[in-house]
Here is the input.
Amino acid sequence: MIESSLQATPVLVCGGAGYIGSHMCKQLAHAGYLPVTFDNLSTGHRWAVQWGPLVEGDLLDTHALRDAFSRWSFAAVMHFAALSQVGQSMAEPERYFRNNVTGTLNLLEAMQAAGVQALVFSSTAAVYGNPASVPISEDQAQQPINPYGWSKLMAERMIAEQCRAHELRAACLRYFNAAGADPEGQTGEAHEPETHLIPNMLRAATTTDGEVTVFGNDYPTSDGTCVRDYVHVDDLCRAHLLALEHARRAGGFHVFNLGSGQGYSVAEVLAQARALCNGRPAARYAPRRAGDPAVLVASARRAQQVLGWQPRYGLGDMLRTALAWHTAQADRAAN
Ligand code: UFG
Here is the structure.
């Protein structure tokens, strides 16, 4: 593996030790690239870096960045490194702007200095805020309702301007709700604290007396709980490879939504989790969580038409792979 990776084309993966970044490194390695992870390990994990070297560094450290660009001749950059908790961003907006906006600016400047001209950027459905209508297409108004969404939208804007002024070729991918784990069990989601619905549900389902908290059952949806568009992390990563090829071929700046186009309410996800986990977990109903839009469902037509991308995994696969990952982690922790 080391022999062949010496021949492989290096790609810089900022945030490659994180949930989505580590799945991306696996796919890049399988596609014949050498994924070089640049990560400060603030939320990522050393164990998640399995498919190429790790450079432990921070995007706010311009020297560390410049050093990484001098050690490898990168064909492209994939940028996942960001703080991503909506609630935390409301409490500490300055941290989000420094980390997500300044960090991205430093990266863009380092890329420009090194002459690296292809970028895939991890963006979010949070740029749309409370959408005027669903499904949400890329042209819909971008009106974030929290600093996290603003930080991603500001980063997108900076990337667009670099494309215009300096011939950068870039794709910004607006993810809806990433879920699931590597079907071979080599990596998966491991946030601390965990805020996402599916891992919280599975944790509760596999813990004695565990119960999941459902935030809000008075939304204007069919069963009163929030509706989201879940997409398997492996499908997301496959879209990155397609988007990279597209941006390099077509040039310029591109934006794609990544979702399935199918919404599930929290109650529906809970029912599917219970079908998989012998009727567990129990649920406790709590008031709405601040900043949660009632319904977020993607129109992923552009990704389908331009990239030829379509999700291969459904919600059941996401729950199944996440459960296998979660169970293996819990067993490891117990031994
Ligand atoms: N939820 C619960 N209980 C939990 C966790 C979540 O009921 O323990 C609910 C939430 O209120 C929401 C839904 O489940 O209605 C999904 O919540 P997640 O936290 O799993 O995901 P979000 O939709 O809040 O967040 C995702 C991304 C963010 C992004 C956001 C855009 O993870 O990065 O979409 O709105 F900003």
The pocket of UFG is lined by residues 84, 86, 124-126, 148, 177, 195-197, 200, 212-215, 226, 228, 266, 289, 292, 296 (CB under 6 Å). Residues 185 and 325 are 6 Å apart (CA to CA). The two ends are 29 Å apart (CA to CA).
